[in-house]
Design a protein that fits this description.
Layout: H1 7-10, H2 19-30, E1 40-43, E2 48-51, H3 57-61, H4 80-83, E3 87-89, E4 92-94, H5 99-108, E5 123-125, H6 128-138, E6 153-159, E7 170-171, E8 174-179, E9 188-191, H7 197-206, E10 210-212, E11 224-226, H8 231-244, E12 248-252, E13 266-270, H9 272-276, E14 291-295, H10 303-322, H11 328-335, E15 361-368, E16 373-382
Parallel strand pairs: 6-8, 6-9, 9-10, 10-11, 12-13, 13-14
Antiparallel strand pairs: 1-2, 1-5, 3-4, 7-8, 14-15, 15-16
Length: 384
């Protein structure tokens, strides 16, 4: 994944780890540390040096360290059980790994018998502290429980949609358990309240996967996904609409101040934030149907419920795909492959490694001043 500004928080995804194991987990999963230095890796004859973030251990060995066969390469099982026993494969054998031999394998590419490992195995340039941290995590990898997941349940926080009725559901022997508060022992938080900033701030700190309806700024933290367009998308859509009808326009992003003497051939473009801080009944009658208001989604009484239903539908679909061995990391990776997922009241949702904001389409409305209401036209508009 490319959105890694939240990597410190993501190190906390495993409950019960020591600080050293958390640092080692970050190296294992993401090839990086929370200190001020980077980690390099070499390939082949060591002439090619790349950032370890491109080749973290988990990419090949998997989050659980059991190895993920791919492209004809079968990475080794590097769980503690596998590494601490001797192994014979055909004519080749090796003794059990010790900490020093495991460090040698990681940094020099030699197995515990001194044989070269497969050329696909990078050699990591670790500091002594990095090596100690990584080995500490490798002592427990595969045995760390996932927050919010038990043998018979997966807990999901759903905030801001108390009227959402959730049918009893079970996946791979686990029932979906809904919490209406932000429980720390949950796998995921869905927040469709009018202001999800508290959930977003908490997710930035603790790494909990979080789906929210709206965020003023585009999401830049790896574990946060937004259903609707950002503020910048609103501005782009408003300006695109004004150009499409060849109209002069002024844009307001904070409030509607300075609009009382606007020429009647000019559109007043208001973002959702500006509209919230604007006394629309104070606008001059001459601006009837000349005020265009942006919104992340159509403002309906059931809007929060629709958003929560969409987020829960996406989440449960992904959980069903990933099976019983789901982890927060595999869940987040899978969310980055959601493409044009369609749900009532929302523009189609697409997420990728480059963008965690679900849509660029914005709901635009005209203000009918005599009636003091917003009409649902022009509707969905995507900025150019």
């Amino acid at each position: 994944m490319m959105l890694r500004m939240g990597f410190v928080a993501l190190a906390m995804l495993g409950a019960g780890l020591t600080e050293q194991q958390q640092r080692g987990r970050e190296i294992f999963l993401h090839g990086q540390t929370d200190s001020n230095h980077s980690i390099d890796a070499t390939l082949g004859n060591e002439s090619t040096v790349v950032p370890a973030t491109l080749l973290p251990c988990a990419n090949c060995h998997g989050d659980d360290a059991h190895g993920k066969p791919e492209g004809g390469v079968r990475p080794a099982d590097i769980t503690p059980v596998a590494l601490t026993r001797s192994l014979t494969l055909g004519s080749r054998s090796r003794p059990a790994y010790t900490p020093s031999l495991l460090k040698r394998a990681i940094t020099m590419g030699l197995d515990s018998a001194g044989n070269p490992l497969d050329n696909a195995m990078p050699h990591f340039r670790l500091t002594q502290q990095d090596a100690r941290d990584l080995l500490a995590y490798l002592d427990v990898v595969g045995s760390v429980s996932q927050p919010g997941i038990g043998d018979d349940r997966i807990r999901i926080n759903v905030l801001g949609a108390d009227d959402l009725v959730v049918a009893d559901a079970s996946m791979y022997g686990r029932r979906i358990e809904i919490s209406r508060t932000r429980d720390d022992d949950a796998f995921l938080t869905i927040d469709t309240s009018a202001d999800s900033s508290a959930s977003i701030a908490a997710a930035t700190r603790d790494g909990m996967p979080t789906i929210a309806t709206y965020a003023a700024q585009a999401a830049t933290v790896a574990n946060i996904f937004i259903l609707t367009a950002s503020m910048q998308d609103q501005i782009a859509a408003l300006e695109t609409y004004a150009r499409s009808i060849n109209s002069r326009s002024i844009l307001r992003t904070k409030d509607c101040s300075g609009t009382s003497h606007i020429a009647t051939d000019t559109l007043v473009l208001l973002t959702s934030a500006a509209a919230q801080n604007c006394a629309l009944n104070s606008l001059p009658a001459a601006l009837d149907q000349r005020v265009i208001v942006a919104a992340p989604m159509p403002p309906t009484p059931q809007g929060n419920r629709d958003a929560a239903s969409a987020a829960l539908s996406i989440a449960t679909s992904v959980l069903a795909q990933l099976g019983r061995d789901v982890t927060r990391r595999t869940f987040l990776d899978a969310l980055e492959h959601i493409y044009r997922s369609e749900h009532a009241g929302l523009a189609p949702i697409t997420w990728s490694s480059q963008r965690h904001v679900g849509s660029k389409a914005v709901w635009l409305m005209k203000l009918k001043l005599p009636e003091q209401r917003l009409s649902g036209e022009p509707g969905w508009v995507e900025g150019e």
